[in-house]
Amino acid sequence: AAPILQKEGNRAMISINGPMMFNPGLFEQVVFGAASTQEIMAAVQDVSQDSSIDSVLFKINSPGGEARQMHILADQVKSLSGMKQTAALNTGMMASAAYYVGSQAGKVFSSDKFNETGSIGTVTVMADQSEAAKMAGIKVIKIATGPLKGAGMTGTAITADMVESVQAKVNQLQEGFSNAVERGRPNADMQDGSEARSGQSFFQADAERLGLSDGIKSMEEVFNFLDQGSQAAKLRRSI
Questions:
Q1: What is the chain's alpha carbon radius of gyration, rounded to the nearest angstrom?
Q2: Which whole-number Å values give the CA distances from 218 to 18, 113, 207, 223, in the listed order?
């Protein structure tokens, strides 16, 4: 696989391909093509400290992934965007956690009109296997120090209190996600119930309409765009 970070002259490219996991093992990397959030964070840190790099392209083709420390990575990308010229290029899909990160670049582009962008939302699953255990003739007795301890253990029932507790955590995670997108994409409506917040991904025309993307460009066109911005910034500093 190509390295996550590639540098050439004053340009750098950070590739995010596949589902994002904080610390994927070899199995997840080989079988699912998982991308390591830790490695992406290290790449962002690297280019942030490299004074020879003026332009950074985030090349993204990912359905999203784990929420773990995604807010830290998003903050890193936003900070980098304040130091250097940055853009995110959707080369197939920039969804959920991948859009969380990509939205913090200076611009968001797509390589094709049918690439999918968005899927802004947070989701988890709880499996109530109590009926399956009952049908198998198994009676599971949970012994715990509180009603929410051991929530979701195999064979136990999922109560309304458990669902409420997990929903509160999902809402907290989503608040950080929405706030980050609103920060990076101020024209996007991040109010609860908005079309952009529906959880669906969008083809390019709708992504632009909703303020989630800035247009269609090839990789070289994006780099040329970033180079122009870098030259303009240097000129402003020299005046």
A1: 21
A2: 20, 12, 17, 9
Q: Closest Cα to residue 205, out of 197, 191, 216, 217? A: 216
Widest pairwise Cα distance in the chain: 80
Note if the pTM is more than 0.85: yes
Specify the amino acid at residue 164.
Answer: E
Beta strands, E only, 141-234 = 201-202
pLDDT tens figures, 130-178: 999 999 999 999 899 999 999 989 999 999 999 999 999 999 999 999 9
Q: Which tens digits make up the pLDDT trace of 33-76?
A: 889 999 999 999 999 999 999 999 999 999 999 999 999 999 99
Closest to 96 in 3D by CA, of 197, 224, 208, 231? 197
In 10 A of CB 28, how many CB atoms? Answer: 16
- 11 near 53, Cβ under 8 Å? yes
d(C-alpha 32, C-alpha 122), whole Å: 21
